[in-house]
Amino acid sequence: NNIPTLLERMNLADDRKTLIKNCSKGMRQRAALLATLVHGPELLFLDEPTSGLDPAARAEVHRMLREMNDAGTTVFLTTHDMSEAEILCDRVGILDQGHLIACDAPESLKLRFARNEVVMRMADGRIVRTTKDAAGATVIAEALTTGACQSVHSVEPNLEEVFLDLTGREF
Q1: Same structural domain, 47 and 119
Q2: What is the pLDDT of residues 3-45, one digit of tens each?
């Protein structure tokens, strides 16, 4: 990556001569990330890389990290934002009180804690809940066959819910 391209991608090209002490927190965060990317590292450790960034800058950082990873860079990322981990990570390690309590692909972690539930929204506005088994399949098939069902969704947790289940913490 060349510096002018990185400055443009990080929306810092117009501010390239601004002293870092005069930059906003978001600008400093983007400049620090740019400094780590300029050498095209094979291994990259990032601690909360999108902290303080607006949604557009966050999305650009996510795109850049995915591109680097696709090109072969191994990225270790610490974040408290489970949606960010779900979007960016091939594997997620969950720490609790300094101990690694789970490590797996995000989808595998979510499936491990999936509920045995299917939710249907019916044409008349009702919500019907059933189970993921033969009895539930009969209920779903009848609703689909009669046209009474508008949508069917299985119920899986997000990574935040998995974290809370694993650590026993509540909000």
Answers
A1: no
A2: 888 888 877 888 888 888 888 777 888 888 888 888 888 999 9
